[in-house]
Amino acid sequence: MDGLDALKVKYLTAVANAADEAGLEEVRLAALGKKGEISLKMRDLGGMEPTQRQAAGAMLNVLKDEIDAALRAKKAALADTALDERLRSEWLDVTLPGRPRPRGTIHPVSQVMEELTAIFADMGFAVAEGPQVESDWFNFDALNIPPEHPARQEHDTFFMNRAEGDDRPPHVLRTHTSPVQIRAMAEQGAPIRVIAPGRVYRMDMDQTHTPMFHQVEGLAIDRNISMANLKWTLEEFCRAFFEVPSVELRFRASHFPFTEPSAEVDIRCSWEGGQLKIGQGDKWMEILGSGMVHPKVLTAAGVNPDEWQGFAFGMGIDRIAMLKYGIPDLRAFFESDLRWLRHYGFAALDMPDLAGGLSA
Ligand code: PHE
After folding, report:
1. Does a structural domain hold residue 100?
2. Closest CA to ligand 1's atom 12
3. What pLDDT band is residue 164 in, cutting at 50, 70 and 90?
4. Residue 20, Cβ neighbours under 10 Å: how many?
5. Distance (Å) from CA 12 to ligand 1 centroid
6. Is residue 262's pLDDT more than 90?
7. Which of 140, 155, 176 to mutate to test the pocket of ligand 1 (most atoms within 8 A of CB)?
8. Both 188 and 238 in a single domain?
9. Residue 120 and residue 233 in one domain
10. Of 55, 89, 123, which one is at a domain's C-terminal end?
11. Strongest mean pLDDT among 65-69, 183-187, 336-340
């Protein structure tokens, strides 16, 4: 039988050159498949003389076995290469230290501060800050609370020490965020729209009071601001914050030395089975004090009261956090109990924004 050597060279070369398993399979089909060249030659054996057939058959079988062996060897080699490649690409340094998922959570007060900042920012309020250790003048006098004023007693103030012989009035731990109104107006003048969230301190402790708590001050000064703007702003805020179509607020006439007129604002809520719910029920929870900024306060901050007017409010952040997230006891906020923090805390990446939903 002629040409067997050529066939052998042809297929062994093709096997050697096959780049992957698919290419190798093509070579196998071309040689040994049903219609492969070697198979067709086998079929020709049938029409040969017996002696010729015997010789040719033996040679063909040898060739077939040789090609078959080459195919198998190459297939194993290709599989090894593929495995090596995978091992290389999936290499992992098992001696690297692990990266545990963060176990800490965002405290509800921090979360609520982010939420209310997002809402007020959307209304055009910037964030202002002031010190927690505040001078007597910023905390009281500038807010129209002179030394003999009875409101000073109501604030249960923590006083800092003065050096022996220094008889200036002592600094205080700020009793409210209102001094930031003065600082912001003194720095920026009018018109101005700011909120000032932060810690405040009063000597008070029961289920609804802690010596340190959080307020957010709001201040809007312009030429034509009225109580109506205050009411709208607070209602808008509450709807956005509590994520409900409507909330009911109650404005009660009140008195603060730094606003005139003044109003305290309560929100309708219910207490059922230890759970606070807002927007329904027959209870009212006081959440803020507010009013039109007193002309003396504007003057103290260097803003001309004949030209400018506006509203201010001070809201309890812990209170609205309790209401929104159904947290019954204020004191638990500051006990650092890990079980409480894991239960009420927020994932670190839950950044509230108005477009994405505040607390989704
Ligand atoms: N500072 C007041 C308080 O702490 C709240 C308040 C702020 C009232 C601004 C009126 C205007 O009780």
Report:
1. no
2. 289
3. very high
4. 10
5. 93
6. yes
7. 176
8. yes
9. yes
10. 89
11. 183-187
Cβ neighbors of 164 (< 8 A, separation 6 or more) are none
Does 204 lie in the same domain as 234? yes
Q: In which domain, by residue range, is 55 found?
A: 4-89
Do both 39 and 162 map to the same domain?
Answer: no
pLDDT at 270: 85
- For 22-63, how does the pLDDT look when each residue is reduced to its tens digit (9 = 90+)? 899 999 988 888 888 888 888 888 888 888 888 888 888 888
Query: Do 202 and 324 belong together in one domain?
Result: yes
Burial class (CB in 10 A: 0-12, 13-18, 19+), 170: middle
Please report how many Cα atoms fall inside a 13 Å half-sphere around the Cα of residue 266, on the Cβ side.
14
Closest atom of ligand 1 relative to the 175 alpha carbon: 4
Which of 89, 121, 147 delimits the end of a domain?
A: 89
Q: Which SS3 state, helix, strand or coil, does residue 174 take?
A: coil
Distance CA 322, CA 112 (A): 10
Which residues contact residue 266 at a Cβ distance below 8 angstroms, ignoring those fewer than 6 apart?
Answer: 249, 250, 252, 284, 285, 286, 287
Probe ligand 1: pick from 173, 231, 252, 256, max atoms within 8 Å of CB? 256
322 and 278 in a common domain: yes
Both 83 and 124 in a single domain?
A: no
- Ligand 1 closest atom vs CA 219: 9
For residue 311, which atom of ligand 1 is closest to its CA? 11
In a shared domain, residues 73 and 148? no
pLDDT at 82: 87
Q: What is the pLDDT of residue 360?
A: 53
Count of domains for the chain: 2
Residues with CB under 6 A from ligand 1: 176, 178, 256, 259, 289-291, 312-314
Determine the residue of 251, 258, 315 to mutate for testing ligand 1's pocket, defined as the one with the most ligand atoms within 8 A of the Cβ atom.
258
The rounded Å distance from CA 224 to ligand 1 centre is 21
Name which residue sits closest to atom 4 of ligand 1, judged by CA: 176
User: Residue 8 and residue 215: Cα distance in Å, rounded?
Assistant: 91
